[in-house]
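Cont'd.
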Amino acid sequence: MATFQTSPGTRDILPPDAGRWRELVRIFADGVESAGYQCIVPPMFEDLGVFLRLGDATDVVTKEMYDFEDKGGRHIALRPEHTASVCRAYAQHRPTPPWKVWYSGPNFRYERPQAGRFRQFDQVGIEVLGVDDALLDVEVITLGWQFYESVGLKNVSLVVNSLGDVGDRARYVEALAAYFSERADQLSKEALATLEKNPLRVLDSKREQDAEVIANAPTIGQFLSASAAEHFAAVCAGLEALDIPFTVNERLVRGLDYYRRTTFEYVSTALDSAQNAVGGGGRYDGLVEDLGGPATAGIGFALGVDRTLLACDVEKCFEFGSPQIDAFVIDTTGGTHALRLTTLLREAGFSTDRAFDGRSMKAQMKGADRSGALVAVIIGESEAEQSTCTVRNLSSSEQTTIPLVDLQSHLQTIVGPRKPRRQTR
RNA sequence: GUGGGCGUAGCUCAGCUGGUUAGAGCGCCAGGUUGUGGUCCUGGAGGUCGGGGGUUCGAGACCCCUCGUUCACCCCA
């Protein structure tokens, strides 16, 4: 018999972690919906071309894409992120700007897994299309910041930078390439390889050998156009006005080529693994146009669900206890009473579970205890004969026997009021 | 793609320089308590020691291959 397990870089999110996961997404959705963002669910795979716009010098495109040919001969790729899909959707459907959307779902990148990195990983995020205002940048950054606050993370720091407009960025890259080329003998061979493909990313090297050269490299600030500099100053001023702490890091270069002007990253200082960026984003004015739509300003962020929860584990916040139910029905007469009673109680709005397989009283009580139920509703031979049931409060161990007809009102006195579900009879 | 660590019960692990029938704790099941959980006591189930090959009288331990996992590089959330 062959045995199977999850593919490398993927995993099962089991209870109770899956409940915690869902709660995290709920909190995120609450936050951004209160700011006017609406949910979007793009497909998980698209024409490969959609993602090639991320940049042909990016690893995400050149070596990490899950792509394949489908039965119709189309070249398909599993999405490595949401932003390109959202921009493709905008270009395809032309909604009225400003278009503010949020999403939650898995992305796929073929990488070697390690701490905080998976081949299938989930992100939540927002995107806004059609607004150029620096104050929107502030709103977006703030919403991400508030999300981390709302799950209780304390050790998150915000890093911002501006990559300038297209022209600024090109001039800077040119200057950077020249600078690094002059000092090629001092750089690691890995850095030199990166230099060939994308000089900007050399700034990301974590190798000690490269540290000094990088530290003295020209910075983007000197290359910003007047309008880009003004935009960035407005973003910083906005964050200050909201008392959101941040640092400007002119070395912050993000891995996707479409970024323009504002970029930012949320870093968990609680995570000591190499992957401590729990979220990031920036402006991508021009991406919609690249995908065949009208020239459109765009900005957004993506937050890693896995990494955020990892950070929560380290900070011991956003803990998720075992679920609790109202009642657990115990039936030692064969199970038919439990069948009727659980159905009745559920319709009345009480979350209710029971045991199966005709287990012993003791085993059923154990089940009740494990279920986290507040009360056990016991029906044995004598209760069945007299149309009563015994209600045991599992935390105080007090129990009384009452007529079955009084069960619902009695339960309410213990677990509180419950709203009846749809009446089915 | 490159490099290091690790694969023994459902989980966390112990098994000394290779030597009889492979262990513990937790969890699970049952009994102690013929109707009552969470504590306690007793018992039980559960392992082809990741897989394949090799060395040896003998391998869970040693060697090779392979798969998985983990951490780091690369890169990114």
